[in-house]
Amino acid sequence: MTDEPQAPPTTLVRKADTEAKQQRRGQPTIGLALGAGAARGWSHIGVLRELAAHDIKPDVIAGTSIGAVVAGCYAAGKLDQIEAFARTLTKRRVFTLMDLSFSGASLITGERLRSALEKELEGVEIEDLPIPFAAVATQVGTGHEVWLQHGSLSLAIRASYALPGVFEPVRIGDRWLFDGALVNPVPVTVCRALGAEYVIAVNVTADTMYRARVIRDDPAALHRVAEAGPFGEKADASFVDRFLPRYFDRQPGDAPNVATAMIDAFNIIQDRILRSRLAGDPPDATITARLEEVGMFDFHRAEQLIHVGREATKRALPNIFAHIPLPASSSP
């Protein structure tokens, strides 16, 4: 775990092996940066499947939040397992995975997700992965960007997706960590620090939802809102309506509850940070999955999301192939 792009000895060895391999293939060292995006991150699976179909395999991989989940499973050779898990999710099963927390630190403990993750990644250490991997997390209190490159893979992944207020923060060493999307939503910089010469970024939040614009107020609408309560006509809203994320049946006119307002605020902040980070260190190629109609908690739509990931990758292939020499048989 490090706050700066320091390469541990094991990473240096793997980097040397990677460089030798790339010299033999005549290709640059390829890095893949998988971005945050909650349920939309299932499209990362489709991206990896489509890249592999065209003989493009990352030499280093980094991920943030759901991107860390998929990147970590890929690095550990568990992509089939995470895809199978994603495809079995239904609305009901997603809801059962949201085990309520009474600790006061979050809405959800995440114990059921932790158990599912550890079942597949038990005993897997980041240092033992066949390719360099890092998960991005944020340190509670300081806001430091932390790159998790050592120790338990499942623990690093949990820290990277611990959405503030929704999942409990994760303690690693003497630090409490939560979602890395607050500091580096698409970890292009991490891939470069790991030795990548050509970085492909996968952005699953690039849609019209958070495009910056200024909207003038409507006095008549303000009066109508003032006459309604905080939950509109639902003064007797249940605990679920008031506190759990409402994405399955959310309508445009519905008043946000606690979790929905918090998550939407987080997503807006993430979007602004993402634009700034990509402008400061642009990737060599970007795969953009446009998912306007997919909610951030629509984990049950894995089949659709994986398909979207593959289609987005197909659109980006001409640009990728223009910079990475590959056998003619692999060209699109």
Automatic annotation (TrEMBL):
Residue window of motif DGA/G: 179-181
GO biological process: lipid catabolic process
Keyword Lipid metabolism attributed: yes
Region (Disordered): 1-26
InterPro entries: Acyl_Trfase/lysoPLipase, NTE, PNPLA_dom
Membrane-traversing stretches: none
Active site: 65 (nucleophile), 179 (proton acceptor)
Protein known as: NTE family protein rssA
